[in-house]
Amino acid sequence: MSIVKVEDLHFSYGKIEVLRGINFDIDGFKMVGIIGANGCGKTTLLKNISGYLKPYRGNVYIAGKNVSSMNSREKARLIGYVPQDMYSDFEFSCIDIVMMGRIPYLRRFQKETENDLRIVRESMMLTDTWNLRDRYINELSGGQRQRVYIARALAQQPKILLLDEPVSHLDVKYQIDILSMLKQLTAKNILIFSVLHDINLSSQFCDVILLLDSGKIISKGTPDEVLTVENIKRAFSIDADVFKNPVSDTPYIILSKKRGEDQRVV
């Protein structure tokens, strides 16, 4: 059985159709990158998978169950979601932020148990944030804060972790650190979906890539299968050359010398 299966998914904001006939299924615990030009529907697809948005046609199944039939507690136990640019208006400590991930397992007014504390500690150890547990969340750098919010999602003990541009505003070190950490989480039986802007990072870290253009998946597969000159031209309207990275043995993309002035830069 597929962990995630999406069938004929259509979604609109008012009269503007954003997703048009999305179909795919993912089996096994992998890192899946969702890429494409701005406005192609990447974040909207992620929100439909999470159940935060409801399609007007089509279905999303998690472990064989339709997301639309799940209540919020069920979804929170299966799906961890980390949106873009998370901030807190309150001075919560990092351990309090991560403890919020245990809410789906607590009854109203129930106090956290020793087991909850153990899971929070493990989640923070996995994300290298245990040393930040007593710091206030708004004191942290962008990369540190991002890891804390990933720890909160992990404390939900999800089968699926959804991340919307987790490294977009970070420097190179934090980009590599966070994507390496996410890749390692697949060994903990977690399926990762991540919206990414950097094609070369998606090539290096993702097992599967979904390439979107105008609300449709135009290619799905391994980086070698998806990141071709033709696909990049179609999705991003640029001429690119594709080489093999000698270290990672994955496709490496650079702009072609024949690039025109009207092309968009990746």
Automatic annotation (TrEMBL):
Tagged with keyword Transport: yes
UniProt xrefs under SMART domains = AAA
Top-rank lineage group of the source organism: Bacteria
- Which keywords annotate this record? ATP-binding, Nucleotide-binding, Translocase, Transport
What PROSITE patterns does the database record attribute to this sequence? ABC_TRANSPORTER_2 (PS50893)
The record's listing under Pfam families reads: ABC_tran
Record-level Gene Ontology MF annotations: ATP binding; ATP hydrolysis activity
Official protein name in the record:
ABC transporter
Organism of origin: Thermoanaerobacterium thermosaccharolyticum
